[in-house]
């Protein structure tokens, strides 16, 4: 579980079956285990109205068959989050009220899928989330606005403009990223060492 | 400091009978200026000076927010209520001066909605009159489903159909026409928001059905002013001001507190805004809670009461007022 | 008699200064010799003649130059002005509020003629004379919020009210005290205040939100907030922090009086009628230490406030690096004498 730090830092829960007509699951890597755990408490036939989108990442084939065994109405396996997003956006664009969204896995997956759901008019408080696996962060550089993926260190170097960034807990759902602010702006000769803390 | 609204002096410029139960009242500012701009769903509190007592009742504004030369409200006559609607129907005449509050909106549109789905029952149509005018002016996407007892009692159904055509759907009880709620709720595009105004039973039914159909609570909006109910008289001690008061049969607890010269803040006087929430110091008896503000747990605790709509039966009640 | 608008800069050569009359009207934010967060919100009713509270929306001698600085910021970074799609109506509300307020308070500088939805707006200090149709965005050169806030001092946040919370869904922010509209847009009241230390634990924001969501039309409210800025720089944005951050290391005992500024925000809160949104103008006033100490009371009191400020707050406000130098300089103006109650300069 992620520790609660400041109020803009997302708090993730545990997936649970919601009342609804259709159920859309988006997961990456260990996030599949969250779906499988939830399936144990789901009512019979729950997945007959479900669509599972899964990006296995480093977990390879480990979770693919167990997820298929849930017999969702639709199953999709994709090589990356980026490759899954067009399909997700199209699914949301044609969906009706009564669709429930469940996101599980890394913060990057949860954040980007939620961003697509928000743009489709879904309120973030109605989306189920569960964080599993890596705590690597997506970080937006407040100076150049570029987003650096998979940040594990504090401070971190912006992959776009090269500034050394303090990675804050301040998080934007709209951008799906944490905020990075130049750590040595007041004295550019300061060069604090990087520590690996987001794993 | 407490929230509250400033008052507006108005003159009744016209009273129009709409059908056998409903009259429409038009107000203009007595000083001739235009009235404050408002948003669809807003209400005003109308002060009714009836000999030695003052009633303050909330009514939805139903005129177009795009035109504030006058405000209009519609009042349904309630022959068994506490007399507010009878006062409006029988005692208010054109040319009469009255005092109303600034508009307050506790039922506003969520302008993020991709589509606005409105469900009205009976006189619950009034806030939708203003909301549809506002949305139509901005090219908003809306659809209104309106249930009424009969064509004759379908207040403003003809006006709405003339304005918006196919976007208005009517259901008449006397023709056994039923609102196909489940089908309606399952066919709405993602991003639709639902608005309900009407009798308590209808609001509960629509909210429950929507929840079961997977509509998140943030997308479901409802306006339910509980009218204060008459009841047996009871005595109350106001601990802070050191006063003993008696709440009459036709009076609300809030009105009785005000009559004693104590003025708790209020916005809705219908049990929804939370402004007049009052702490209970001690009691011996039973609360008759009628509000939609306090949680069930708070109702059971005996620590709080909403004096605008709730009553009490028993030996003693001491309030922190 | 109109306002004598100064020609001055808030960047590069920093020629900003206050006239003696403006020093006297500065909204000094400390009513006692100590500071801690409080829900210090009060009704925004007209204050004494000549004070910054005389009118609901204050216009002062820095108006023309501040608007020039805003135009420079927006040309560099258009992301400082953003409005989510559902907030256009609130933008029209804000345009109406600012135009009617300015025209009523400063008729020699601003005129508004309304004929139904045909509006005619004259802004003499900025040389603007525009006719447009209220509600029709195609008749203005910018969206309604951007159009009118390019002509209004201070930052503006427009907050949508939903589900008992306030959502920062539109704004123009070019004179901010170190927060990013681009990052915070779309957040709720607790989220955008999340980085503020100490106040959450004290329940400040919970109480403030309850108050703000109940603000009604025709009954605005206000509060003061403060920080410090090195050089009279309006645009202390996080976006440009790597460019101005080094300023903080340039404070010396010799330059405190000219370089160090107390920065006060007059925040007001207004219910907008059509959209039911809340607008939150954040008006920034700057005063140099040399100007501040022309009031012996303000000099003594500010020395005591800064000296006793908790470390977390000093860090959050970004004062830590230069606080000792400024305190040393201010101490020469603090003889330990008692100060009178209230904000005034005596």
TrEMBL record, chain A:
Domain Dimethylamine monooxygenase subunit DmmA-like N-terminal: 5-127
Keywords assigned: 2Fe-2S, Flavoprotein, Iron, Iron-sulfur, Metal-binding, Oxidoreductase
UniProt-recorded name of the protein: Uncharacterized protein
Residues annotated as signal peptide: none
InterPro entries noted in UniProt: DmmA-like_C, DmmA-like_N
Pfam families named in the record: DmmA-like_C, DmmA-like_N
Disulfide bond listed as a keyword: no
Domain Dimethylamine monooxygenase subunit DmmA-like C-terminal stretches: 138-181
Keyword presence, Ion transport: no
GO molecular function, one term: oxidoreductase activity
TrEMBL record, chain B:
Domain 2Fe-2S ferredoxin-type, residue spans: 234-321
Cofactors required: FMN
Xref: InterPro entries: 2Fe-2S_ferredoxin-like_sf, 2Fe-2S_ferredoxin-type, 2Fe2S_fd_BS, Beta-grasp_dom_sf, DmmA-like_N, FAD-bd_FR_type, FNR_nucleotide-bd, MRET
Superkingdom: Bacteria
Domain FAD-binding FR-type: 5-110
Keywords: 2Fe-2S, Flavoprotein, FMN, Iron, Iron-sulfur, Metal-binding, Oxidoreductase
Record Pfam families: DmmA-like_N, Fer2
Keyword Flavoprotein: yes
Any one GO molecular-function label of the UniProt entry: 2 iron, 2 sulfur cluster binding
Protein name in the entry: Oxidoreductase
Organism: Mesorhizobium zhangyense
Species lineage: Bacteria, Pseudomonadati, Pseudomonadota, Alphaproteobacteria, Hyphomicrobiales
TrEMBL record, chain C:
Pfam family, any one: HODM_asu-like
The name this protein goes by in its record: DUF3445 domain-containing protein
Lineage start: Bacteria, Pseudomonadati, Pseudomonadota, Alphaproteobacteria, Hyphomicrobiales
